[in-house]
Every structure is written in C-alpha cells, then in structure tokens.
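Person: I keep going back and forth on a fold encoding question. Show me how you would write down a chain together with its backbone fold. Please set it down just below, with no commentary around it:
Helper:
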Amino acid sequence: MKITPNNFLGIAEIAPTEAEALILPVPLEATVSYGKGTRKGPEAIIKASQQVELYDHELGYEVQDQVKIGTLPAVDLGDEGAEGAQNIIAETVKPWTDKFVLSVGGEHSITPALVGEYKKKYSDLSILYFDAHTDMREEWEGTKWSHACAARRCQDNHGIKNIVWVGIRNTSLGEQQYIDKNQVNYGNKYDLKKIISQLSKNVYISFDIDVFDVSTMPATGTPEPGGINWYQAMEIFEAVTREKNVVAADITECAPIPGFHGYDFLTAKLAFKLIGYKFRK
C-alpha cells in the first residue's frame, strides 16, 4: 500500500531550506462575523491537494518536476485572537521571505502579518487583492484586526498604499474615503492591462475565495453573488506572474462544508495553478 505524505500535493517531503515554494498552513479563526469554519480550511485544502493531478496540461509537465515545493508545519496559534496572532505569523514567515511562500488560511486577517514581512524585503511592494469586499474598515465588531480590516491594516500598519482590488461587490460608505477608486475592479469586470500597469514590480497576491461567485464557491463565511469565475482568475494569474515578480501569496476564507469536498479541491487547485504559473519554464 502506497503511503501518501501528509503535505501539499502528497509529493515527497523536502527540507524547507531546499524548497523554492513553501506552503504555510495558517488555521486562524478569530474574527469571522457570519459563517464559521476557516480554522479547518488549511487541513482540508492540503488533504484535497493530494487528489490534484500533478501534470498541468497547460504547462505541459508535472509541476513538481520543475519547482521544488515544500510544506511547512501549520502555525500553532493556540487560543490567540487575530491581533495576538500577528506576531506569531510574522515570526513564522520571517525566515522564509527569500522564497515564494503561499499561505493557506484561515481567515483573511492573516494577511497583514505576512505582507509586513515581505514589505521589509521589497520596499515597492504592491498587493493584488482578490475579494468580494474591500476590507478597508478601520475596525469591525470591536477590533482593528478583523478580517474586515485586513487591507486597511496592510495600508496603515505596513505602509502599502498600492492595493489593486478585483471582484469587489460589497463595501461600506466609510471605506470609500480610503480607497483609490481607480484601482477597484467591481464584480466580474476588469481591465487586465490596467491591473498590470497599476501594480509595482514586486507583487503580493492576497486571494479571498469569496471573490468567486457564490455559485462557484459557497464554502466561505461571507459569500456574495456576482463575482469572477475560475477562468478569469486563471487569466489574471497568468498575466501577473508573467509581467511581475510575484513574491508571495495567501489564499484565505475556505470554510469546508462536511461531505462536499469539491470546494476544498477547488481551493487546492487554485494554489497548484498559482505555483505553476509563478515558476513556469
């Protein structure tokens, strides 16, 4: 009987120091404000990834043959809330910022800690922010570290003014004064050339899966109708990884639905495709 390693894609384990791409599970669930379950997201994504076919028909090869992919242990957050988790997440990713770290959450409040460490290395860092929501609230439900404040914390706490949003369908009146509306792509409409031109040389991708239309991805805590579809996400991934230096990424807000593994698999395949595009030969 073949034993599948309990890591991303089920491929042979390698030391993190040897890897080019690292998967970092971050099972944070501290400020979810509607549906719950993000704590279980990373484990479900990694388990589903072991069913992903390693051959990418678009690229023409098995991805793990072209890029060394490792899996880090899940971040141990204990009972920390979103604010307390920031230092733990930052300290965990800090040794690996010379590599492409793809963090899988977990709620979207993991992003500021991750972005902050890459900003120290790349002063011009911009964020390509896939989300149904702008996440630019100053605070939400009593905390500035809510998932609803993730982009605002990246801007205010880490000095990243260049954020380009894709898939937005829900934002508040109060958030509008902090947004460069020229850099917001609403619903399933966007100008690909404009997105590329607005991003700096070095880009961090933050991907909340509620950017997808709810009919494509219902396994998330704050779903919205009318978002982008799978092929639109692939089009943007292909273009931005070709034109820019994508230094790291996160995929967040997967809240597994018991008995419906397809949504976990979609999220795992999303991570697989992003790595494939990033390291294409």
Remarks:
- Residues 262-278 form the longest helix (17 residues).
- The chain is about 30% helix and 15% strand.
